Fold this protein.
Amino acid sequence: MSSQADYKDREFLAVIGDEATPLTQDSVTGLLLAGIGHITTGAEAKKNFLVVDNKTETAAIESAFDSFTERKDIGIVLINQHIADRIRHRVDSYTAAFPTVLEIPSKDHPYDPEKDSVLRRVRRLFGE
């Protein structure tokens, strides 16, 4: 059971998503335009987003995922499902309630509920 202390200071979303191209406005850009972007102040400024393109190394995605899930100011981590597939072992083994990790579709990669780690956990709970 979670207490209020577990979530009361979690005021930000984090997003790991695909890049914007000249013809599309993809996940991260759209969310940043909606106002979710935040960069902490200080010597070690931290962003709450990672833009992933074809050149982004898997280690960088894993590092961002680990960083976002360890932060106490983030309540939800949104990650494009096709990017989550690149670090599936990390996403599937993440079990904490906060921040919540949600897999989302992108324009070029439709959502597949069979891959979603949260839905798979729910199905196991209900014996499906």
